[in-house]
Design goal:
41% of the residues lie in helices and 25% in strands. 25% of the residues are buried. It is rod-shaped. It has 765 residues and is an alpha+beta fold. Strands 2-1-7-6-5-3-4 form a seven-stranded antiparallel β-sheet, sandwiched between helices. It has a five-stranded antiparallel β-sheet with strand order 9-8-12-11-10, with helices on both faces. It has a five-stranded antiparallel β-sheet with strand order 14-13-17-16-15, sandwiched between helices.
Length: 765
């Protein structure tokens, strides 16, 4: 009979929150409470007093109860209870369907066992979630692409990941034996300690700094450190969690960028180069400090295009606006120089280069530009241009002054040399020849100096057009033929193809080059030597002409300077006259015509000069060339015996007048009338209406051109042909004279045969 206290105890147990069960020493159920029955409600047997533990165990196993021992599944045998009772293993944990149950047993004095079955499902779920979270953290920590570390407050590493080990060059075991200060660059140690103290004292949640670390191999690396503090319930930091990213490459790139920016800034400052940006989306204009200094305006202010236009010189404003507008509308870059007027009134010349920036849709988004103050350079260029012009004017004047007396020297020497009536003896003939050679050499020197000066000043004009190569070459050979015969030099020409070869050149200048090269090939050749002129097509657009001689040759160490002015590489033959200018002029003329010139040579064997010329379109026109034809063809003109031709010669130089009279003294078909001034000459022309007028261009009071205009305006003299004879031999002046209406333009000094041929040709017509 159960007493009242026991009954009360059983009733209390019935409503206990844990399952309670009492087994006797034989393993039979004595009693259990409601919670126990609810936990095991799925078994097929009734849980009532007298139920044997083996039977209940069998039912529980079949219903899905799994015993867990030390976190692992364990076998559950039928003798488990007896085994546990004997070994006093009274606690276990089981998984039953969707629940976790902890079983705690207590052995009573009479051998009975009281067991408590506690539902710990929520606890197990929390534990599993915590375990999963820890595994997730561990995975993130270990597999992170940046360095991760957990450090003690004293800086010692508690945990590190592979990325940090790789960054610092240590194994995990080595790094766990170190502290933060062991791998921190000495120069950053103080900064690191101050950052940690601030972190601890200010109770901030996290911080980020950049610092240098020292790898195990001694190399320095930059790291971006982000540090957080893990705190307890009271808010005290227990340890640090740090994330370290290797930013060495970025820092190096930034350092290089800073270096480049510094160099760029210094360069801009050094050359006084301004910079601007014009953002078309925002309309904002950025002007650098240097640009503001160049323009003479205040720095740091917002700018508009109108502010810029207000500074442009009125004389240049229209073309500047046109360039800017075209840039904004069409996206065209531009590069130009113009004047500005600063607010302080100073006028400057600037050079601006603008580049347009477009997006991937080809829409203009920005204009950037560089501005350079070229005021001083422009001033120097103007001075240089003026100096060059002055030099050119001086040399032109000197050329004119030289040619006038040379006209008498060479002219009278030619008259004496060609005098049929008064034969001179051999000694005087030799003297006359020396006068002619020296005079001609002086003339070449004057012409070369004038050409060189004009080339250097950029005042030489080149008119490129299709030119018959054979005609120019034959004309040049005709000029030097006498010079070659004097040394008994054989001059052969092989144009390679029996076709008309047209090259793109200035005919007069190309002949000048040929004359220079052919003259050198003769001068520096041996007696009885040879000169061979050949051509070879480089490709469909270029032809190379070779002039090969059997002369002295040039030392290899002198070839590089052969085309420099006043350089004569043939120093072994100083008695040969020459100025050392001709090859320099030839090179520059060929380059102005778009070609090239070069040389190869061997001392004692000879030299080969070559010229590359551009072939004109339509150059390969079938037209046979007879390379065996005479270089120069002489002709004779029958003037007829109807009447003597009246020729009027007007020149203010008395020596030139006397020379002309000597030239035509024995010419039966010409009656020469002379005048020493333009006014008198005009009156004679109007009264006599001559068949031909020869006149100087630079006459006092009235120029030769003005006199020609007067004749053209008068009925009766408007059709009189006129020959200009002047000491002014500049090609552009020659062309200007022809454009004014002269039938022919001859330069002093006079070449007798050229003058006579010209007069006969005009009078015959």
């Amino acid at each position: 009979m159960v007493d009242d206290n026991t009954q009360l105890l059983f009733e209390a147990m019935e409503f206990a929150p844990e399952g309670v069960v009492l087994w006797d020493a034989d393993g039979r159920l004595v009693m259990c409470n409601k919670k126990f029955r609810d936990l095991h409600r799925h078994v097929a047997v009734k849980i009532i007093p007298g139920l044997r533990i083996e039977e209940l165990l069998q039912q529980l196993k079949s219903s899905g109860m799994i015993r867990v021992r030390e976190g692992k599944l364990a076998d559950w045998d039928d003798d488990d209870l007896a085994l546990r009772l004997r070994k006093d293993e009274l606690d276990s944990m089981v998984q039953y369907r969707d629940k976790w149950i902890r079983i705690s047993r207590n052995k009573l004095a009479n051998g009975s066992v009281i067991a408590f079955h506690t539902d710990i499902t929520e606890i197990k779920q929390s534990e599993e979630a915590l375990t999963e979270s820890e595994e997730h953290f561990r995975s993130i920590f270990e597999d992170a692409g940046v360095g991760m570390a957990i450090t003690e407050l004293n800086g010692r590493f508690r945990r590190v990941n592979a990325a940090l080990c790789e960054m610092l060059g240590y194994t995990k075991e080595e790094l766990l034996g170190l502290a933060v200060h062991d791998v921190t660059h000495p120069d950053d140690m103080q900064t690191t300690l101050e950052a940690r103290e601030k972190f601890l004292s200010d109770r901030i949640k996290h911080e980020a700094i950049q610092k240098r670390y020292i790898r195990k191999d001694g190399q320095m690396v930059w790291g971006s450190l982000t540090r957080s503090g893990m705190r307890d319930k009271e808010g005290n930091i227990q340890y640090f969690v740090s994330q370290v990213q290797d930013i060495t490459q970025r820092r190096n790139a930034e350092e290089q960028l800073r270096l480049r920016e510094g160099q760029l800034s210094n360069s801009q400052e050094l050359i006084n180069l301004g910079y601007f940006e014009h953002d078309l989306n925002t309309g904002i204009n950025f002007w650098s400090d240097i640009l503001c200094r160049i323009l003479g305006v205040e720095t740091g202010l917002d700018r508009r295009m109108e502010d810029f236009f207000a500074l442009v010189h009125p004389g240049d404003l229209e073309r500047v606006k046109a360039a800017v507008n075209n840039s904004v509308v069409e996206g065209e870059d531009y590069n130009m120089a113009f004047r500005i007027v600063r607010p302080d009134g100073k006028e400057k010349t600037i050079h601006i280069r603008v580049m347009c920036i477009v997006d991937n849709r080809k829409t203009l988004i920005k204009r950037i530009g560089a501005v350079l103050d070229i005021t001083e350079e422009q001033h120097r260029e103007d001075q240089l241009r003026q100096a060059n012009q002055a030099k050119s004017n001086f040399l032109t004047h000197m050329s004119h002054e030289f040619r006038t007396p040379l006209n008498s020297i060479l002219g009278f020497a030619q008259v004496i040399n060609n005098d049929k009536k008064n034969q001179i003896d051999e000694t005087n003939h030799r003297r006359i020849q020396n006068i002619l050679k020296s005079g001609q050499h002086l003339l070449y020197l004057v012409d070369d100096l004038l050409d060189l000066s004009r080339i250097e000043a950029g005042n030489i004009s080149i008119e490129l057009k299709p030119t018959n190569l054979a005609d120019v070459l034959n004309d040049a050979i005709d000029t030097v033929e006498t010079q070659a015969k004097e040394k008994n030099i054989t001059l052969s020409v092989d144009l390679m193809a029996e076709q008309l070869i047209l090259v793109q050149s200035d005919e007069g200048r190309l002949k000048q080059v040929f004359l220079n090269l052919l003259s050198n090939a003769i001068k520096y050749n041996r007696n009885d030597g040879k000169i061979l002129v050949t051509t070879q097509f480089q490709n469909s657009k270029s032809l190379r002409l070779y002039i090969e001689d059997t002369g002295l040759g040039i030392d290899s160490d002198r070839l590089d300077s052969i085309f420099k002015p006043f350089n004569r590489p043939w120093t072994s033959s100083p008695q040969i006259p020459g100025s050392g200018i001709g090859l320099s002029i030839a090179k520059r003329l060929i380059e102005l015509m778009g070609g090239n010139i070069g040389v190869s040579s061997k001392v004692g064997v000879g030299s080969t000069f070559w010229i590359d010329l551009k072939i004109s379109e339509g150059a390969n026109i079938d037209d046979e060339i007879d390379s065996t034809a005479p270089i120069a063809e002489q002709y004779s003109i029958d003037m007829g015996n109807d009447r003597t031709k009246q020729v009027l010669y007007i020149d203010d130089d008395q020596s030139s007048l006397e020379l002309m009279q000597e030239i035509f003294e024995d010419t039966s078909f010409v009656n020469l009338i002379t005048s020493d001034n333009a006014i008198n000459g005009l009156q004679i022309a109007l009264e006599t209406v001559p068949d031909l007028v020869i006149l100087d261009i630079n006459l006092p009071v009235m120029s030769g051109v003005e006199l020609l205009d007067k004749l053209s305006e008068n009925h009766g003299t408007e059709n009189i042909p006129a020959i200009a004879l002047s000491a002014d031999a500049l090609p552009e002046h020659v062309q200007k004279g022809l454009d004014c209406g002269f039938s022919l333009y001859l330069s002093k000094p006079i070449i007798l045969n050229d003058l006579r041929d010209a007069v006969e040709e005009i009078l015959r017509k």
